[in-house]
């Protein structure tokens, strides 16, 4: 095992730690870790990411369920439409994308590079939201009556994102649960973790029909991520969420910049 791989396994702990601390966000690191530290092809890296994120988030959601913080009705309203789009994205959309994805004259953009550019764009948007700490404390549904149709439509969109880039999308889910379901932030975070777990597993199921997976690598990496989430759940009461999200947002922005530079140069 070389130094680069050791750093990659340490990053697995960080992924779980951040999910445990913030209820999301750590999953956005998995694809860059797989691609740049373990030299895994980008499309396969998104598959691995779905598995790691699914297992790690499921472990975190169990703790939230036991504490009674998860709104199961809202979870169903958001997640069921999301299941459809994430499964179709992994089973049909991603395999059907042409390679190269775009060609103009002598320039060709391979599908793998296009996925990474899109991933970097999503990371920049996530970092922006984290740095600005745009997490509303109350929303349009503060009367306690969730807006189920907008929730379902948002679920479809987030499922498409999850299926395409292999990230959970918690930075999108939490604000929508606050605004459209009227959930307090702590319940929105807990509900988001369960939705992320379910979406990731559905997306992974859409892949196993046409992908050969290295479980000897994937399972130890996932195990380290699970260990990390227990550390995050333990540390969460001691760290102010706003400080954590802002610091992690800057870190995500740096990683996104690295992806863009790595692919351009």
UniProtKB/TrEMBL annotation:
It is found in: Cell membrane; Membrane. One of its GO terms (cellular component) is plasma membrane. It is a multi-pass membrane protein. The keyword Electron transport does not apply. The keyword Membrane applies. InterPro entries: TM_pro_TauE-like, TSUP/Inactive_protease-like. Keywords: Cell membrane, Membrane, Transmembrane, Transmembrane helix. It comes from the Bacteria. Pfam families: TauE (PF01925). The chain crosses the membrane at residues 7-37, 43-62, 74-94, 114-131, 151-179, 185-205, 217-236, 242-261. Belongs to the 4-toluene sulfonate uptake permease (TSUP) (TC 2.A.102) family. This is Probable membrane transporter protein.
């Amino acid at each position: 095992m070389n130094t680069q791989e050791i750093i990659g396994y340490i990053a697995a702990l960080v992924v779980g730690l951040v999910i445990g601390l913030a209820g999301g966000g750590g999953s956005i690191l998995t694809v860059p870790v797989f691609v740049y530290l373990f030299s895994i092809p980008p499309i396969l890296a998104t598959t691995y990411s779905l598995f790691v994120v699914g297992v790690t988030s499921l472990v975190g959601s169990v703790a939230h369920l036991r504490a009674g913080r998860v709104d199961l009705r809202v979870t169903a309203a958001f997640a069921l439409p999301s299941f459809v789009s994430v499964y179709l994205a992994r089973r049909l959309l991603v395999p059907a994308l042409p390679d190269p994805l775009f060609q103009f004259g002598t320039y060709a953009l391979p599908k793998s590079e296009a996925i990474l550019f899109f991933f970097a764009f999503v990371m920049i948007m996530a970092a922006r939201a984290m740095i600005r700490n745009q997490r509303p404390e109350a929303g349009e549904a503060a009367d306690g009556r969730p807006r189920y149709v907008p929730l379902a439509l948002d679920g479809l969109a987030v499922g498409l994102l999850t299926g395409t880039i292999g990230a959970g999308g918690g930075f999108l889910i939490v604000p929508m649960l606050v605004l459209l379901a009227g959930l307090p932030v702590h319940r929105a975070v807990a509900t988001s973790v369960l939705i992320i777990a379910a979406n990731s597993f559905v997306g992974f199921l859409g892949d196993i029909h046409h992908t050969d997976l290295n479980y000897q690598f994937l399972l130890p990496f996932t195990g380290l991520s699970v260990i990390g989430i227990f550390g995050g759940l333990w540390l969460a009461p001691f760290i102010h969420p706003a400080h954590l999200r802002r610091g992690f947002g800057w870190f995500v922005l740096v990683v996104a910049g690295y992806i863009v530079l790595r692919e351009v140069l």
